[in-house]
Amino acid sequence: MRDYLNESSIMSYLIMMTPRLLEMKRVLKPIGSIYLHCDPTASHYLKLIMDAIFGIKNFRNEIIWHYRRWIAPSKIFQRLHDIILFYTKTNDYTFNMLLTPYTKGSIERKKSGILHRFKKGEKPYLVSNKEIQTEGVSENDVWQIPFVAPSAKERVGYGTQKPEKLLERIIKASSNEGDFVLDPFCGCGTTIAMAEKLRRKWIGIDISFLAINIMQNRLTKNEIKEAKDYEIKGTLYDIYSAEQLHKKIRIISKIGVFLKYPMLFLLIKKVPIKELMDLYIFKI
Ligand SMILES: C[S@@+](CC[C@H](N)C(=O)[O-])C[C@H]1O[C@@H](n2cnc3c(N)ncnc32)[C@H](O)[C@@H]1O
Q1: In this structure, are 108 and 161 located in the same domain?
Q2: For 236-246, how does the pLDDT look when each residue is reduced to its tens digit (9 = 90+)?
Q3: 8 C-alpha vs ligand 1 centroid, how far in Å?
Q4: How confident is the model at residue 262 (pLDDT cuts 50, 70, 90)?
Q5: Are 131 and 149 within one domain?
Q6: Whole-structure pTM value
Q7: Which numbered atom of ligand 1 lies nearest the CA of 185?
Q8: Neighbours of 79 (CB within 10 A)
């Protein structure tokens, strides 16, 4: 790959990502899952790396996140999707099947005992009773979720903000109340806001001051308070705090904490220290 990609920006991106994905595998519990969001320019390279790190047999889905946006006409088909690679650490992973509610028409047909299964020229016929008893159909791997619109209530003013619906779906599918959710590139904190709402514990990491400020405001708005409900570690305000962080990193890295890279901020939901010690990131 190196020969082919040379010293390009995609190569440096992959070099930046690989050790972080290795760390993500290390900190993931055996029942855990990882969802890696990327766009079609990098997804095929990242899939090779994910296969190498997590194993081909632990690849679960390539989720297509399809959205609408205005694009100036050009000589290609409009690019209106991103990719989310879903891997697990083992075969024994948490998975809550999500259901897409039936359409009005399906519900009507369901009432009369006939569910929407058509073939051209054939009458609708009854599908299995099991399917009729459920509240909807199993979610598939193409997700239609709109971008966060400029006027949306959830918009917090961070360029790469992801829709809450997207994170809600991922968190609900792959964790239960009380589980830990970690987002190592958490931007304005959509993952942690949704993890909090869904009663998960959470850790968010980002390299940007702006992201941390926006995240703090977002949490405050939701009445989640610093010191009482969560802590921020690693913020650099001046030379003194940089030196302190440098010392801390040295100490922390001795006990194998995830926070290895300088200039990282870590937001962490307050949980009893024993639970943190159970977390794999705190193991040597
Ligand atoms: C695509 S955005 C994440 C958006 C997020 N899902 C949200 O809803 O806001 C990627 C984030 O990764 C952060 N980032 C980039 N390089 C990083 C690094 N080496 N370590 C930690 N965070 C990094 C950026 O500051 C940015 O906020």
Answers
A1: no
A2: 666 776 667 66
A3: 20
A4: very low
A5: no
A6: 0.82
A7: 12
A8: 12
> 219 and 87: one domain?
no
Whether residues 259 and 149 fall in one domain: yes
Q: Are residues 259 and 175 in the same domain?
A: yes
Domain co-membership, 149 together with 235: yes
Q: What is the pLDDT of residues 77-98, one digit of tens each?
A: 999 999 999 999 999 999 999 9
Report whether residue 161 contacts ligand 1, using a CB cutoff of 6 Å. Answer: yes
* Number of separate domains in the chain: 3
Domain span at residue 123 reads 99-138
The protein residue with its alpha carbon nearest to ligand 1, atom 20, reads: 207
